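Before a colleague's protein record goes any further, I have to sign it off. My question to you is simply how this chain folds and whether the tokens agree. I do not need a full report, just your reasoning and any doubts. This is what I was given:
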Amino acid sequence: MIAYIFTAVLLLFAISRIYRNFKIKKSSKDTVQNLMNDPEYATFIAEDLYDEILKKNHNSLAQMLDKLRILKSYSFNKFTINAIQEINDNQFIINVLCRSKENGFRSTAETHFYDLDFKVSFDFEKNNILFYSGPNYELSEKNIKTEFANTFFAELTKGL
């Protein structure tokens, strides 16, 4: 009897995880569609992205800005950039889908998906690039956002 209950609980947990990941992927797809079809949607999203994730000083901001303008979609490590939308001359919205493996029940690796939005701003007066995101409710999400910002900054500065 206990084995049946245990199996039912595991099955319920697995189904809820699959459903959660499906919803996150769908949300990401919907965000990309809205960004591509409605330029004002990027401005709408940008208003909610106010938590500074990363601030870096670099002398080649103009070259980094040019690189960002030609990127459409890009994958590296566990991150897939689904959309990049320019808000104005110095600001962009980036939609990212992150696939992260984390230890779960009985130390088995579980795949978690995160649909993340970032605002990237270039401050030419101070030679800074700034990454903003929405509020962090979980430490793991904050760590993933910081990892993305650092990794993407490294990708933008390659060869500069």
Remarks:
- The helical segments are 2-37, 39-46, 61-70, 139-157.
- Strands lie at 51-57, 74-76, 79-88, 91-103, 109-123, 128-133.
- The chain has one domain: 2-157.
- DSSP finds four helices and six strands in the chain.
